[in-house]
Specification:
five-stranded antiparallel sheet; 10 strands; single chain; about 500 residues
Amino acid sequence: MLKLLNSFFFLPLLCFFFVSISEASVHEYNGVKFVSKGNAFVVHGGSEGIYSSLADPQNLTSTIGDSYIRFEKVTFRRLKESANFSSKRIQAILFEVEDRETIGGSAYGGQRAVCCTADLAKLGVCLEGEVIYRPSAATPNWPKVFGVAFKEDGEVATLRYRSIKVTKTGMYNLYFIHCDANLKDLIVEGKTVWKNPTGYLPGRMAPLMNFYMFMSLAFVVIGIFWFSQYARFWKDVLPLQNCITLVITLGMLEMALWYFDYAEFNENGIRPVGITMWAVTFGTIKRTVSRIIILMVSMGYGVVRPTLGGLTSKVIMLGGTFFLTSEVLELVENVGAVSDHWGKARLFLVLPVAILDAFFILWIFTSLSATLNKLQARRMMVKLDIYRKFTNALAVAVIVSVGWTCYELYFKSKDVYNEQWQNAWIIPAFWQVLSFSMLCVICVLWAPSQNSSRYAHSDNGNEDFDKDETNLTLIKPSPTPSKDFRSAAEARPVQGSNGASNGDLEEDKTE
């Protein structure tokens, strides 16, 4: 398992060469080609939730508190062979999602078009060859539409520098559109800068910075509790408790890295790719190790069996596969993420992760059932009690997870245009809180103590369960010492014979 964990640290270095790197709220366009959509050619320039600019009663000239979208050196380039004619305008369309119906139109109730057709031009509602739009009824002077045309023999056309102040909170979308079929090979270069009042973080991500700060503090609190117990009873620490220590450490690193990632992102508008990749990797390792630990505990590792035997390779294989699929999903979702919208690639990559999670859950509960039956058969009441509490907590976590997954699917199916972007941060935050809650339960149940050895596997077939205080009531006292002696003498051969004890050992070997 340690070899597997050590190999995980090299994966980000390899992934670095396969992930397209871009700057956060600075949307860069490096030779992006226009794509045919209906009767128009389109490039998606970005989508972000932006809060309205803060009030400035003193009329300060500082841009602190301003929200804006700034166009910097946005250039359109065509091939030299296509530069022997002038063109119609290439237009930038910036609109708030509630005004989406103001873009495009149709003649006589026919198919909706983005570019003005000859029929619509005859009706006098637009100019042929340009984008159809009408003013917003809710926000004056919106949507923002402007453009530039190629001059004859010109290969480059550049939009003039401009900064558009945002005065209304909403999800803003930017598209570059042209309607000239002769410009099929047109590309766009340059960048746009999107800013919120408090920094460059996109609106959907902005609340997560404070969330990760609080989660970092929460991990510090649980870390203080755990490490203090660990230091006090380090002589009695079990291998399982060492694994829990690893998960807490990984969680502290993950939360701190996410906070620094978002803080740097918010301050400079440029996402630190290195920090993002390490945050993703530490988080994926933590989730993988957590699932493996829960599976090992469910199998009774260190409690009713000293090793996993032949199952070790299968557990490592499942954990390694889960790590790889989760790492790819998280890298695609976070590294180079620019826009505030749900990507289709994520929906495709989340499927194998969901299947592996379901397999983990099935294997965990199957193993738990077998372990509980074994503990009950051996009358290990202390261990049985702790395992019942663990099973109940795990069952609640799974039920809540299924319920939240259904809500997440409902949320995304209803929010097609990302109009609920202000609440979208709750979805990833919930999973972090649920994971942390489960970690707290495990820390309480298996906290290092002077009695830790009571939960450990013993080579003695008796497991000393009859010496535990909680089991004294199960042994009926006899009025005479001789009967006690005979009862104890009769009990020992049963444990050492080919009865339950040997049967359990044989079951361990077959498993």
